[in-house]
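Dear Dr. H.,

I hope your travels went smoothly. While you were away I took the liberty of generating a structure for the chain from your last submission, since the lab meeting agenda had it listed for discussion. I wanted you to have the full record in hand beforehand rather than looking at slides cold. The sequence, exactly as received, is reproduced here:
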Amino acid sequence: MSLKIAIITCSSSRSFAEDSAGATLERLIEERGWKLTERVVIPDIRSEIANAIIVAADAGADIILTCGGSGLSLQDVTPEATADVCERNVPGIAEAMRAASLQKTGRAMLSRAVVMQRGSTLVINLPGSEKAALENFEAVCEQFEHAVAMIAGGGH
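The corresponding predicted structure, in token form, is as follows:
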């Protein structure tokens, strides 16, 4: 299955050139034969994050990976922006990411990342650091094709 995936990095301090997490995810997506539909860096502003999710979903992305903005800082608003524009919660993926991360660091329990559906698009909040984004992606990416097939009406 060829997935269409968008990457939205949420950072007010990082430029596209400095977005190592997004670049690493782009490489991993391409290595799996999936199609990158978009990769952008936007500021940590709730309405801008929400709008970027809408644009990517409406453009046909099967999966949107957000990077950053899911911690405890008051500027971290990615989970709220995701909830603003999505209809359904998919908690198992976020739980699996936290469980895998907890094997590496106790700080994983501080993640507020959510995974939700906007129509037929799955929106997955990943951490902003390259290392943590990679670890979280690897913890759950084997389920992406099945999840997208299920959203499209496929059986178990």
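Two observations you may find useful: The beta strands are 4-10, 35-42, 63-67, 88-89, 115-118, 121-126. The chain has one domain: 4-151.

With kind regards,
E. W.
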